[in-house]
C-alpha cells in the first residue's frame, strides 16, 4: 500500500530559457506548481481522468461553481489519447486548477499521485465523468468541524445518462453513519465521487492499493471503517453518470476482486476483530447474490452459478435459494436481455 508513482517530470524550457507551460507535444506535463507552498487550500479535489475529454468540462465547472471557494483541483491525466489536454487548458487560468500528465499508471497509482500532489487538509474525489451540486463542499466540510473522529463524509447521488439527462433514481433508506465496518463489509454504500476524506486518514491507513485494478475504493473504505467514523449529507449532491462505461463487461472481474478484498480484510486487516462472523458470512453471500441478480436476465446460467455459490454461506440461504430458482427459470425460458452492472445494489 505504500507503493507510490514516480514524481511528474518538470516543465521543459522554451527557447530563450524561460520555463514554459507546454511540452513540445502541446500537452502540459504539470501546470500549477508555481503556487508552491504559499497556497494551502482547505480542501484538495483529486480528479483522475483517462479519455473522458467529452465529460471533463462539466466536472471541472462543477468544482469551479462551488459555494466554498478555498479549494484546489488536481487533475491527473493518466495517459489519455483523446483531447483531454485541450479540454482542461481553458481552466488553467484559474490558479486553483493544476494539471499533471502521467503515463498510464492505472486507477490506484493515478489517484495516489493526485493525493500526493494535493495540499489541502481534506481531500475530495471526483471522477471526470461525474459532477457536483454547487453546495456540496460547503455542506460536507461543515460536518468535520470540531469532530476529529470523522474521517469520511459522503452524500447521496442522482443518476444522469451519458448526455447529462436525469435518470430515475430508486429510493433507498439513509446509509449508516459512525463506525461502520460491519455495514461496509456487506456493501460498499459510498459513492466515490461524493467523498471528502480527512488527510490524516491516509497517513493512518494508507492510500489506494496498486494491487487492485477494480473496487479500489472498497478496499480503502474497509481499512478506514475499522478506525474512523463515516458521516453523510442526506441529499443528492453528486450527478453520477451511467450508461457510457463498460462495467457490465467487467462485472465478473469486479465481483471476484471484491471477494478477494473481503478475504484480505478479514485475514490481514483484522476486520474479523470488529465484525461478527455472521456479518462476514452475510457479506460474502450477498456479494454472490448481487452478481446473480444483475446477470439473471442476460446470462442466467452464470447467475445460477453465483446463487449456488451464495448457498455456501448460512446467511440469507432463503434469498440465495430464491435467486437460484429464478435464474433456472430464466434459463428455461430462453429469453435473454442486455445486462448492466452499473446500478447493482452492491456498489462495488
Chain-averaged pLDDT? 87
CATH fold annotation of the largest domain: Spore Coat Polysaccharide Biosynthesis Protein SpsA, Chain A
List the helices and strands in order.
Answer: EEHEHEHEEHEHEHHEHHHH
Q: Helix share of residues?
A: 25-40%
In the residues, how many domains can be counted? Answer: 2
Task: Provide keyphrases for this structure.
348 residues; alpha/beta; 2 domains; globular; disordered C terminus
How would you sum up this structure, described in words?
- There is one protein chain.
- The protein folds into two domains: 30-245, Spore Coat Polysaccharide Biosynthesis Protein SpsA, Chain A; 248-333, no CATH class.
- It contains eleven helices and nine strands.
- It starts with 29 loop residues before the first strand and ends in a 15-residue tail after the last helix.
- Helices cover 34% and strands 16% of the residues.
- With 348 residues, it is α/β, with parallel strands linked by helices.
- The longest helix is centred in the last third of the chain and has 19 residues, at 277-295.
- The protein has helices at 56-64, 84-88, 107-117, 136-142, 181-186, 199-205, 216-225, 251-267, 277-295, 300-310, 317-333, and strands at residues 30-31, 43-49, 71-78, 97-102, 122-125, 131-132, 150-160, 196-198, 229-241.
Helix and strand topology:
Blueprint: E1 30-31, E2 43-49, H1 56-64, E3 71-78, H2 84-88, E4 97-102, H3 107-117, E5 122-125, E6 131-132, H4 136-142, E7 150-160, H5 181-186, E8 196-198, H6 199-205, H7 216-225, E9 229-241, H8 251-267, H9 277-295, H10 300-310, H11 317-333
Parallel strand pairs: 2-3, 2-5, 3-4, 7-9
Antiparallel strand pairs: 1-4, 5-8, 6-9, 7-8
Helix pairs in contact: 7-8, 8-9, 9-10, 9-11, 10-11
